[in-house]
Design goal:
With 162 residues, the chain is mainly beta. It is 7% helix and 34% strand.
Length: 162
């Protein structure tokens, strides 16, 4: 399988996802999430992420193994522009988000309950890669904005109970 490439808005933070079968839910699952947390972070009506095994994701940006939360601006030579933000998502669970420290684009997120998976922000995938991992479901539909219609053909979960 050809890797699924992606990048931040400015192109400085690049990554690839290598899946053996992108059509398998165990390999990749794209979903829309209508929770308040996703709305606030993305600035939109919902968040759209693709769940992939952590082992399938790799940064192509030099120095990505030394990510630390920090100030924006151009990174030093050989240093990664990737930054990490950790915060309680309101339920007592810490959510980790990785983003480009130069342009601010969110790249991925994961929490304590994610297991061996990470959630890559769908819009950061290149155009042809997004076509290979189209959305399959919606979560927290009870919080969907009233003007936003249900997407036909996707499974719908009103909320998630742990």
């Amino acid at each position: 399988m050809t890797p699924l490439p992606g990048s931040c808005y400015c192109g400085l933070t690049r990554y690839a996802i290598e899946l053996s079968d992108p059509s398998s839910d165990s390999q990749a699952r794209t979903s829309l999430c209508h929770c308040r947390n996703c709305k606030k972070f993305t600035g939109g009506a919902c968040g759209v992420t693709t769940r992939v095994p952590r082992s399938a994701f790799r940064y192509l940006t030099p120095g990505s193994d030394s990510r630390k939360e920090g100030e924006g601006g151009a990174p030093e030579e050989g240093k990664s522009p990737v930054r990490v933000h950790e915060a309680d998502n309101g339920s007592g669970t810490v959510l980790h988000r990785e983003f480009c420290g130069v342009c601010g684009s969110g790249i991925l997120e994961y929490g304590a309950n994610a297991g061996d998976y990470i959630y890559v922000f769908y819009g950061t995938l290149e155009d042809h890669a997004r076509g290979q991992v189209e959305p399959k479901g919606e979560f927290f539909c009870r919080l969907r904005d009233p003007w936003m219609p249900e997407i036909e053909g996707l499974f719908q979960k009103q909320e998630i109970h742990e």
